[in-house]
């Protein structure tokens, strides 16, 4: 590609609804410039090395896009001309494969597959006109992933530097019936204020995703260290030495963690899956998983504070009596978990009422397409009951 590795360029990090501010903060801490929050995305500026670092280190990003062209259009038919004009030979050769994904936000509904098809025609015709040959489409393992954002007035053409969504960390070989997305898990843990300065418990840990993300946050381990590949590794300007330097620098910033991260699940199969995933993530020294029923497991007697984050069943895919179940959650917290900050996510707004405690915070998030609430309960030592706390 023509970009000098030192040259700055704009990028867009995609995320889940409700995580935009967390992602913006992550980007600022990493060193991004001109950070600007959008809806389910954050725009920023950096160089090639920063693009590598963003893919490796961002916990709440789903993918990192690099815009390479923005053209005015009056209809979807103009997408062909916009693609024909771009210097694709700077980004790929005729031997490379590519794929195109279109997000169409036009007032009159348009078929995104049709728009992507017209874009493909523009790209291949540019090569055919200049070189007498055309590159091929490969939807599964392309050398170049192209993303179009199409409105009534313009098309923005970007290269997807990530490839597979960044929630695919590479550590999860085992999942349960309702696994939580890794980016959602990281965002929940960060929204809960977890900084690795206390013990951590997930009392319904399933396949262990919240535990693993919490451990990586506590130790400042890059979340995508275990990924097999990123899309930018197939780009013409791929700089292996630069990436190796970026990775080594990120690993030097890892920290010690003097507390415990513990997961419970009452299903032996879930415990085995969680243990396997913790092992895959190379976090066995920080995370332990045991078979326990949370409702029969008092907190260890200690003066140390406990940070609890969990994802209880919603009754969507797992058959439970949610009102009875959520009442037991509240009773267990009240009886056994004084001195604990407890957070959990649920899409069942009625079930929250059965907890019998007043949440001190409620944050709107989405679990897949389910609108959900991340709720916080503060249980104070000595009183064994909740105090009303103003939302921060």
Model description:
- The chain is of the alpha/beta class and 392 residues long.
- The chain folds into two domains: 9-160, VC0802-like; 182-224 and 256-379, Rossmann fold (3-Layer(aba) Sandwich), CATH 3.40.50.150.
- The protein has ten helices and 15 strands.
- It has helices spanning 20-30, 48-57, 78-85, 112-131, 182-191, 209-218, 240-252, 268-280, 322-336, 349-353; strands at 9-14, 33-37, 41-46, 63-72, 97-105, 136-137, 144-151, 154-160, 199-202, 261-265, 287-291, 306-310, 340-346, 361-367, 370-379.
- An eight-stranded mixed beta sheet has the order 2-3-1-4-8-7-5-6.
- A hairpin with a 2-residue loop joins strand 7 and strand 8 (154-160).
- It is elongated, with a radius of gyration of 23 Å.
- The model is unreliable at 1-5 and 383-392 (pLDDT under 50).
- Mean pLDDT over the full residue set: 91
Order of helices and strands: EHEEHEHEHEEEHEHHEHEEHEHEE
Task: Tell me the span between the first and last alpha carbons.
Answer: 47 Å
- How many strands, what sense, and barrel or not for the largest sheet? 8 strands, mixed
| CATH architecture name of the largest domain | 3-Layer(aba) Sandwich
Structural class: alpha/beta
User: Per DSSP, what share of the residues sits in E-state strands of 2 or more residues?
Assistant: 15-25%
Number of helices: 10
Task: Say which CATH homologous superfamily of the largest domain is assigned.
Answer: Vaccinia Virus protein VP39
Low-pLDDT sequence parts: 1-5, 383-392
Cα radius of gyration in angstroms = 23 Å
Q: Could you estimate the helical fraction of the residues in percent? A: 25-40%
Q: What spatial order of strands do you see in the largest sheet?
A: 2-3-1-4-8-7-5-6
| General shape | elongated
At the fold tier of CATH, the topology name of the largest domain is: Rossmann fold
The CATH class of the largest domain turns out to be Alpha Beta
* Record field, number of beta strands: 15
Number of domains: 2
């Amino acid at each position: 590609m023509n970009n000098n590795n030192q040259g700055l360029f704009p990028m867009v990090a995609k995320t889940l609804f409700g995580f935009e501010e967390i992602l913006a903060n992550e980007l600022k801490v990493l060193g991004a410039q001109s950070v600007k929050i959008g809806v389910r995305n954050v725009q920023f500026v950096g160089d090639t090395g920063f693009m590598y670092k963003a893919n490796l280190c961002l916990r709440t990003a789903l993918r990192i896009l690099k815009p390479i062209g923005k053209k005015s259009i009056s209809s979807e038919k103009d997408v062909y001309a916009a693609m024909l004009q771009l210097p694709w030979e700077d980004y790929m050769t005729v031997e490379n494969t590519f794929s195109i994904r279109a997000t169409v936000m036009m007032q009159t509904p348009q078929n995104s597959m049709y728009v992507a098809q017209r874009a493909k025609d523009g790209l291949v015709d540019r090569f055919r006109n200049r070189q007498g040959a055309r590159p091929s489409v490969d939807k599964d393992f392309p050398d170049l992933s192209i993303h179009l954002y199409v409105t009534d007035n313009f098309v923005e053409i970007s290269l997807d530097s990530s490839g597979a969504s960044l929630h695919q960390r590479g550590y999860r070989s085992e999942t349960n019936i309702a696994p939580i997305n890794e980016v959602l898990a990281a965002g929940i843990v960060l929204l809960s204020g977890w900084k690795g300065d206390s013990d951590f418990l997930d009392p319904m840990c399933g396949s262990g995703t919240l535990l693993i993300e919490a451990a990586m946050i506590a130790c400042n381990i890059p979340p995508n260290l275990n990924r097999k590949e990123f899309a930018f590794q197939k780009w013409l300007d791929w700089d292996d030495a630069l990436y190796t330097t970026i990775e080594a620098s990120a690993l030097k910033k890892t920290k010690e963690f003097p507390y415990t991260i513990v997961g419970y699940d009452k299903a032996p199969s879930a415990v085995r899956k969680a243990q396997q995933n913790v092992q895959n993530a190379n976090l066995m020294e920080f995370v332990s998983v045991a078979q326990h029923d949370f409702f029969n497991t008092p907190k260890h007697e200690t003066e140390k504070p406990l940070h609890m984050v969990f994802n209880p069943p919603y009754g969507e895919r797992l058959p439970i009596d949610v009102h009875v179940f959520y009442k037991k959650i509240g009773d267990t917290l009240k009886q056994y978990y004084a001195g604990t900050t407890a957070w959990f996510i649920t899409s069942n707004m009625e079930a929250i009422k059965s907890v019998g405690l007043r949440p001190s915070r409620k944050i709107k998030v989405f679990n897949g397409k389910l609108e959900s609430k991340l709720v916080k309960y503060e249980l104070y030592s000595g009183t064994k009951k909740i105090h009303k706390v103003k939302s921060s």
